[in-house]
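Extended Data, panel c. Modelled sequence:
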Amino acid sequence: MAKVVTKIRIPQEPETVVESSLTVDEQIFEQVKLAVHCASEKKAEAIVVLKLVELTEFTDFFVICSGNSTRQVQAIADEVIDQLKKVKVRPLHTEGYQSGEWVLIDYGAFVVHIFVDQARKFYDLERLWRDAERVEI
């Protein structure tokens, strides 16, 4: 696999730059970790990362989390989008932001799903993708 040289900014320490030589898969996983970190910083609950590489071709990872209100869901989405933009990663598509019940942020190689609790229980993505590997971050 080809090596890609990247610079990753750590959100809490904007002056810190980490230089490394990462494969494309490693680079994607770093972006997933950043999305999880951002969600956590905005107090997202029940954060789950599912690895879908073996199950589907449309994406490699789902990041699934919950907020306590539509405002919190939107704040989590804003933080994920803003911090990933700082490392030059922009979403291909975003859905559901206005209603704030379920915000889907599609980055191609990974998709971030942010739910209010009731919507998360209703759609139950963890059950639908129960064969996916859960990744600890």
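The first helix runs from residue 24 to 41. This feature is highlighted in the accompanying rendering.
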